[in-house]
Design a protein that fits this description.
Blueprint (H helix, E strand, L loop, with lengths): L8 H14 L4 E2 L5 E3 H6 L11 E3 L5 E4 L4 H7 L7 E13 L6 E13 L3 H16 L5 E7 H11 L3 H12 L3 H10 L4 H12 L1 E2 L1 H11 L3 H13 L8 E4 L10 E9 L7 E5 L1 H6 L5 E8 H12 L3 E6 L6 H13 L4 E4 L8 E6 L5
Parallel strand pairs: 1-5, 7-9, 13-14, 13-15
Antiparallel strand pairs: 2-4, 3-4, 5-6, 6-12, 7-10, 8-9, 10-11, 11-12
Helix pairs in contact: 5-8, 6-7, 7-8, 9-10
Length: 362
């Protein structure tokens, strides 16, 4: 029996998520801390942060502390017809923290399904993404977009590269005001302007979104969305999975369905994933791929912020305090199930619920 009170947040999270993924046949993937720097330079737009810690190996080759796991899995895999590589990972990655803006060692957990993938694999990874968020809270949601549909709609009204780039940006921000101004700048007619604005205004419950899409578009991607939605009706978390076209990943790497996971009271997404066949092609792989990553650092910051405490009790003593008194106080609290930190002074960054001062008063 594992005593979870002895585990760190990252250890507990990894243990629980690993249990979820193994039930569905995903196997652990382990990699080294280093990868050739060139791998990340060639694909820096795929990374959350393009800043990488690099160093020269003893043979002169430029290496990097890995800022990402997916690229290494792609690089080290192989294409076998009819076969899928299903793996999950718990790996430390090294990248710039969003909070401190300094390099940080971050535990990243996720899974990848690479190979001869099909519609079921897309469905399964979305369900597993939902199960992953359930580990941390009942109050979560997953928002799904279809990049092929977004790209088709945008390029059908204007295929200018700058227009496409700006349109995607404004859609991701749900910025209908600037999107409309962009349409006016390119002299789009009312019909085409309304088409593209639909991608900002239509989101939420899946059937409602599909109904509105059918009124505005006649696109093959809508059938794919209907098919996926019907499959998700069988999920335990169906009511927490919605459609939202503001979920837009880099189309040079991603395609098809992409999604993002959110927890209540956390401002940014804590899970991101989707299909990345374009990334596979870029790295000379013939297979398809779908997967996601869970950003444990974002979740931990939110959870720690919610409870606000590192320990239940802080005990303060000095050189004149009777040692028996300190031992008794600590033991009594620990027996009662509390966590305790005995200190000679109040640590600057320690968050505690209550304080017991054992120093003699003058």
């Amino acid at each position: 029996m594992i005593d979870e009170t002895l585990m760190s947040f990252e250890e507990k999270s990894a243990y629980k998520l690993r249990s979820v993924y193994k039930k569905y046949g995903y196997l652990p993937y382990k990699m080294g801390k280093f990868e050739e720097y060139e791998l990340y330079v060639r694909n820096k737009d795929f990374l959350i942060s393009d800043r990488v810690i690099a160093f020269n190996d003893t043979n002169g080759k430029l290496m990097a502390l890995k800022p990402d796991v997916t690229l290494s899995i792609i690089k080290n895999g192989e294409d076998v017809k009819g076969v899928k590589q299903k793996v999950f990972y718990n790996e430390n990655v090294y990248r710039v923290s969003e909070n401190t803006h300094r390099f940080k060692e971050i535990m990243q957990t996720g899974l990848e399904c690479i190979g001869d993938i099909d519609f079921y694999d897309v469905y399964e990874t979305i369900c597993l993404a939902a199960e992953s968020l359930k580990v941390f809270s009942d109050n979560f949601c997953i928002e799904i977009s279809n990049l092929d549909l977004v790209k088709t709609v945008i390029t059908s009204v204007c295929d200018d590269r700058k227009f496409v780039s700006n349109a995607i940006k404004f859609i991701s921000e749900k910025n209908s005001h600037d999107l409309q101004k962009l349409c006016e700048e390119y002299a789009l007619d009312k019909n085409n302007t309304e088409k593209i604005l639909t991608l900002v205004s239509v989101y939420g419950e899946r059937n409602e979104v599909l109904s509105k899409l059918k009124k505005n578009f006649d696109l093959p991607q809508i059938s794919d969305m209907e098919r996926l939605s019907k499959m998700l009706d069988n999920s335990l978390f169906s009511d927490k999975i919605r459609f939202d076209f503001s979920i837009v990943n880099d189309m040079n790497y991603y395609n098809g369905f992409v999604y993002r996971g959110f927890l209540d009271n956390v401002a940014c997404g804590v899970l991101a994933g989707g299909q990345y066949d374009n990334m596979m092609k870029k790295m000379n792989r013939k297979s398809g791929a779908v997967g996601f990553a869970v950003y444990l650092d974002r979740i931990e910051d939110a959870i720690r912020g919610n409870d606000g405490f590192d320990v239940d009790y802080l005990i303060i003593y000095d050189d004149n305090t009777d040692m028996k008194k300190i031992i008794f106080a600590v033991n009594e609290l620990v027996k009662a199930g509390f966590s305790v930190s005995a200190q000679k002074d109040i640590p600057e960054n320690l968050r505690y619920k209550e304080i017991k001062d054992l120093r003699k008063k003058d």
